[in-house]
Design brief:
Largest sheet: 8 strands, mixed
Strand order of the largest sheet: 6-16-15-10-11-12-13-9
Number of strands: 16
CATH class of the largest domain: Alpha Beta
CATH topology of the largest domain: Glucose Oxidase, domain 1
Number of domains: 2
CATH superfamily of the largest domain: LD-carboxypeptidase A C-terminal domain-like
Order of helices and strands: EHEHEHEHEHEEEEEHHEHEHEEEE
Oligomer: single chain
Length: 343
Amino acid sequence: MTIRYPAPLRPGDRIGITAPSSGVPDDLRPRLNFCIDHLRQRGYQVVVGDCMDGTKAASAPAVSRADELTAMLIDPDIRAVVPPWGGELAVELLPHLDLTAVAASDPTWLVGYSDLSTMLLPLTTVTGIASVHAQNLMDTPYRIAEPLHSWLEVVALPTGASFSQAAAAHHRSSGHDSWQDTPTIDEYALDTSGTWSLLDPAVGDVRASGRLIGGCIETVSVLAGTAYGDLRAFAADSAPEGLIVYVEAAENGAFTIARDLWRMRLAGWFEHANAVLVGRTNAPGASGFSQLDAVRSALADLNVPVVVDVDFGHVPPQLTLVNGALTDLIFAGSTKTITQQLA
């Protein structure tokens, strides 16, 4: 299966907004409107779907959410779909999402992270359409500075193009901005220095290549061992060069994350990995067992390099990671880079 990349997003193109998981409550509608205006000011047309209600756990019944997402992904006039954020119940869509129709259509960019990994992963592994793990809509106005790139920069690239990102010098230590109080905030408070590191420093310099694939541990671990998250099959069909697998913990405790990673490992997630990237996390540890211990438990003896505290996931700033992209990882001295090619 050849990876297919959507056409570059250009000013004047239409972006679809729908909430496959949680909708947006009334007190955060000013933030939503600010984010939509941000896209319009960049020259894009914006279409907001019906599945946006934030009064319950999910924005609409599962069938309605799946139908709206499918409709946007197959609409030739919509060039990208960017949900407001994740949530808890995106998995409910999978029995109803028409991936056959999506695969038969011209590809459309789907962008997000957290619970949206539940959609991003099968979009790539099942249909062969590249998807983007990056800021959700509600985060999009935040400025992403070099050496990282925003998703809007990446989805504007043509097929065949390459882009490089490197370790950020600072990240946010904890907490979240109050969008109720400051709905127009567009600068992250990056108050702590830090960088990527090796789970096993004895590995030395790392140079690894493969097709990039992964997501949020709490959500993609549910798909491990199913047709929606079969990385053994994906590697065989689409990645003879092997994989670079990325994972990140959102909020679950360290013991739960360890069990989730083991479920993924036993389902073959790391069998074709040439390297594993683990996102920086503020998820809690347990007594005598940290989030890093969870990673060690499941991944330390894989005999592949494991890079931890990488800039993606729930701790800003966030790399833009393209599921399906040919990727080169370099970790050598002060050089810590990820180069992705849309090929």
